[in-house]
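Quiz preparation item.
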């Protein structure tokens, strides 16, 4: 015969909502009828308990009966909401946009930015765009009705730096106009700038986005700004997608350089970092690409990002010629500052390699990929020289070893977050992260902004 359950003490802290619920369910365990009802309640409510967004300050005393574990950050966002652990925090947007914005159109972003070429679709990573359509898989029964989804708090941005990156992308497109189509481009700039560069180049190149994280109010990677930049340029991407020639279009793979941002505190930062995923050497060759142009911000970035070293070395072994160009090598020519009649303000002034229309196609001579599709009356000046000097070489990074057969490996702690787990049941009762460095207060709402 079962002994009746006797509760010796009650932990009644907002932080331990999971533990408190567990105690209350066990208090009736001595009654067989009540126990059956409790088990039914557990089966119904168990999933709901997982939806607790964040808990109050966990004191760490013996009565709290919880522990902190590391879980995959993106998986937690998919389960509990894009702003899990920071439900009361707002996203901050810097920049302005002058285009009319329909936040319903953003819901078609995943499809709008899917490459037209079936051969390129396996390399399209729409993870960031999918966050717009997400709802928590598990929520509390008393969750606030009508909680704001990410798409409803998104604000399109266009900054001066984005305008410059857009013109640099347009310059790259003019540089490759009429050239051989056996060259792929890989853009590795900070998210909003990478998007703007891709928008400028999208009249000729087919963008293939590879943003593999979700935004978060405390994210070490400000992915919401990348998403906001995409929202601004979405109409242009759609327009150019329908106007490119039906023949083979060279790919432009787009990365967010912020994916490897420094990360220092799991208590106050959300780790939404990730490693770049790019086609293999044989993949590129199968696409018809025997050359790869890697776009970095400036001359200060004279080698590839650490998580690309193994990939680039493998490209060389596959016979793919990898060169580097600094976006800062594409600059405007001295001349009128006002756009001529009929020329959109975003398109003026035009940018050129070496800062002059006469030196623009000198890129082809410096890269060794000549002859140029158009003559270059004079040699480029004031450029970084990366096009001539760069070649990928093996090196040890935190993501790979420079030994034989080097390959890329994600550190086990990268892209993870601490969560609070009830020691007895193993249920997640909250996220162990907040801006103040302590566990944020419990909220039944998952909406942002």
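Solution:
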């Amino acid at each position: 015969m079962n002994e009746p359950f006797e509760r010796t003490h009650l932990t009644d802290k907002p932080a331990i909502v999971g533990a408190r619920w567990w105690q209350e369910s066990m208090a009736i365990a001595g009654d067989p009828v009540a126990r059956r009802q409790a088990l039914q309640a557990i089966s119904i409510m168990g999933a709901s308990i997982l939806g607790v967004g964040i808990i109050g300050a966990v004191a760490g005393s013996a009565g709290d009966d919880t522990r902190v574990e590391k879980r995959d950050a993106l998986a937690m966002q998919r389960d509990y909401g894009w702003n899990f652990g920071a439900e009361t925090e707002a996203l901050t947007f810097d920049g302005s946009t002058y285009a009319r914005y329909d936040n319903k159109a953003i819901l078609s972003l995943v499809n709008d930015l899917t490459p037209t070429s079936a051969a390129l679709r396996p390399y399209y990573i729409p993870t960031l765009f999918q966050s717009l359509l997400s709802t928590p898989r598990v929520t509390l029964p008393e969750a606030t009705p009508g909680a704001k989804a990410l798409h409803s708090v998104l604000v399109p941005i266009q900054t001066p730096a984005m305008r410059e990156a857009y013109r640099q992308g347009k310059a790259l497109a003019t540089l490759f106009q009429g050239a051989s189509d056996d060259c792929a481009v890989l853009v590795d700039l900070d998210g909003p700038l990478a998007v703007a560069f891709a928008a400028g180049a999208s009249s000729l190149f087919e963008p293939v986005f590879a943003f593999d994280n979700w935004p978060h109010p405390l994210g070490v990677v400000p992915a919401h700004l990348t998403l906001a930049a995409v929202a601004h340029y979405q109409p242009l991407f759609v327009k150019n997608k329908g106007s490119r020639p039906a023949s083979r279009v060279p790919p432009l793979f787009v990365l967010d350089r912020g994916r490897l941002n420094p990360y220092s505190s799991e208590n106050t930062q959300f780790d939404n970092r990730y490693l770049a995923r790019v086609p293999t050497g044989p993949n590129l060759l199968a696409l018809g690409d025997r050359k790869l142009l890697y776009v970095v911000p400036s001359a200060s970035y004279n080698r590839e990002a650490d998580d690309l070293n193994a990939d680039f070395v493998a490209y060389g072994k596959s016979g793919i010629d990898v060169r580097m160009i600094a976006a800062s090598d594409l600059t405007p020519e001295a001349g009128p500052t006002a756009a001529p009649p009929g020329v959109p303000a975003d398109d003026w002034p035009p940018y050129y390699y070496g800062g002059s229309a006469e030196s623009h196609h000198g890129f082809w001579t410096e890269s060794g990929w000549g002859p140029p599709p158009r003559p270059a009356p004079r040699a480029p000046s004031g450029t970084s020289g990366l096009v001539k000097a760069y070649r990928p070489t093996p090196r040890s990074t935190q993501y790979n070893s420079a030994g034989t057969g080097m390959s890329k490996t994600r550190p086990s702690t990268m892209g993870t977050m601490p969560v609070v787990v009830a020691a007895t049941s193993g249920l997640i009762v909250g996220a162990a992260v907040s801006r103040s460095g302590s566990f944020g207060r419990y909220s039944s709402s998952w909406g942002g902004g």
